[in-house]
Design goal:
Chain B: This is YceI family protein. The structure holds 2 protein chains of 2 kinds. By secondary structure, chain A is mostly beta strands. Chain A has 2 domains: about 35 residues; about 230 residues, Beta Barrel (Porin), CATH 2.40.160. Helices cover about 15% and strands about 45% of the residues of chain A. Chain A has 2 helices and 12 strands; from the N terminus they run αβββββββββββαβ. Chain A has a 12-stranded antiparallel barrel with strand order 1-2-3-4-5-6-7-8-9-10-11-12. Chain B is mainly beta. Chain B is elongated and about 75 Å long. Classes of the chains: A mainly beta, B mainly beta.
């Protein structure tokens, strides 16, 4: 009897010891997991744009992003134009994060000598198990300054257009992110009365990471029909490869859009992939920080 | 004899050992990678930690996402490219304390040995620590260093000059009785 009691005592004592040893880290872990439930999903995209289409990402607070967007000429220019390399169109842009959610930007494209100013606001951020998507609002004002001596009536107001995009994105897995972007453009002046001054488009885009620092990206911008009638506009499609190296993101791109900002790639694309109206180019971003 | 056993047994079953467990949910762990090219600092102020003085055991656990960097891009790279916090959300430490921890207020220098798990890799670590027992609280401080390569954290050659091969880690926590 004594022996049994002793054994039982040992058993209970042993159990108690083990239970306590486990519980120290285990109980901590359990309460940590409670806290973990609704985490903000970060890194939906590497860059602030897929090729031309903006992503939900924006520079962090007090961080300045300098961007060079560059497109060569059309590939179907043939060997005479060295497959487009003789020509170039460029956009410089600066984007600055006022807060982690709000960013402002300015830019200037060589096409039509266009200045642009933009605001991007992260309205909603995807979280694990709660909010399924991230939503950013993007507003862009463009003003082209190309001189037309035959059109003296073109004042600053007529040269201005507004683009508003609602970017709805979801990071499905650590590698795959997709977004859908409805767009509304308003042109202060359109070529004829038949052309609409309010124009709508829908874009879709995504990225697939194939290494930790490289991904394949694609975007398709569909302009709803019967809006721009005097020029034969096409939907623009772009493919790219993102390469991230520390503070830089390099994007090598192929696109049938020569323009790189709102109204240009969405509503003024005339080339098609089938005919070889393909522009090769790149976007390079560099981040600078002004925090402490 | 039977009675004696029963008493011991009953005491083990029902009377908890005297409150010698300490716990915190806002311990601080920071690291500082210093190279001529770039200084990278990050701090996590939501570290969960516990000490059992009677068993001389200690445990830490934290969420990698709670490390805050001064630059948002660094924080994103830390989570996305290096620590892969989506795959390995936590870092955990479990260890034992050697050295005397008194019951009266004072500073006790001890040695902590244990296992650190992060990025899916477990490595033994040991560090000297200082436990400062005060009225109603226990303040612990320690420092050690880790090599990213020990935890299978690959650093591409392009940024090798910007990330230290050995990174000092500072730990400080103010524990309250459990």
């Amino acid at each position: 009897m004594q022996k049994t009691a002793f054994l039982f005592l040992l058993l209970v004592a042993g159990n108690r010891l083990m239970a306590q040893d486990n519980s120290l880290l285990q109980s901590l872990d359990d309460s940590l997991s409670m806290q973990q439930k609704h985490e903000v999903v970060t890194g939906t995209f590497k860059a602030t744009q897929i090729v031309n289409l903006p992503t939900v990402e924006s520079p962090g607070k007090k961080s300045l992003q300098f961007m060079i967007m560059h497109r060569f000429g059309k590939l179907n220019g043939g060997s005479y134009e060295l497959f487009g390399l003789d020509n170039a169109s460029i956009r410089f842009g600066f984007d600055y994060g006022i807060t982690d959610r709000l960013a402002v930007g300015v830019g200037r494209s060589s096409e039509d000598k266009t200045f642009d100013g933009s605001l991007k606001y992260k309205l909603l951020q995807q979280t694990t198990h709660q909010i399924p998507v991230s939503v950013s609002l993007y507003g862009l004002v463009t003003n082209y300054t190309q001189r037309y001596t035959d059109k003296p009536y073109l004042d600053a107001r007529y040269r201005t257009a507004y683009t508003t995009q609602v970017i709805i994105a979801r990071k499905f897995t650590r590698n795959l992110s997709l977004e859908v972007v409805p767009a509304w453009m308003h042109f202060n002046l359109v070529p004829t009365a038949q052309d609409k001054s309010d124009v709508f488009a829908v874009s879709a885009g995504g990225r697939m990471k194939f290494t930790k620092r490289m991904s394949i990206t694609a975007e398709y911008n569909y302009l709803l029909p019967d809006q721009v009638v005097t020029t034969s506009v096409k939907s623009s499609m772009s493919l790219g490869i993102d390469i991230e190296t520390g503070g830089h993101v390099f994007q090598l791109v192929f696109t049938n859009a020569s323009g790189m900002v709102g109204p240009y790639y969405l509503a003024k694309t005339t080339g098609t992939w089938g005919k070889g109206d393909i522009f090769f180019g790149f976007n390079v971003t560099r981040a600078f920080n002004f925090k402490k | 004899m039977k009675v004696l056993y029963s008493i011991i047994l009953a005491s083990m079953l029902y009377i908890p050992t005297q409150a010698q467990s300490w716990i915190t949910r806002n311990g601080k762990i920071s690291f500082y990678s210093k190279t001529p090219m770039e200084d990278i600092k990050a701090v996590n102020s939501q570290v969960f930690a516990a000490i059992d003085v009677s068993k001389k055991t200690i445990a830490f656990t934290l969420l990698q996402k709670n490390f805050l960097f001064e630059k948002q891009l660094m924080q994103e790279h830390f989570n996305e490219n290096y620590i892969e916090s989506d795959k390995y959300p936590k870092a955990q430490f479990e260890g034992t304390i050697t050295g005397n921890i008194g019951t009266t207020p004072g500073v006790y220098k001890v040695q902590v040995d244990g296992k650190l798990t992060m990025h899916g890799v477990t490595q033994p670590v040991s560090m000297p620590a200082e436990l400062n027992l005060q009225q109603g609280k226990l303040v612990g401080k320690s420092a050690f260093s880790i090599k990213p390569s020990d935890y299978n954290i690959k650093i591409p050659s392009l940024v090798k000059d910007k990330i230290a091969a050995e990174i000092p880690v500072q730990v400080s926590a103010e524990f309250l009785p459990k």
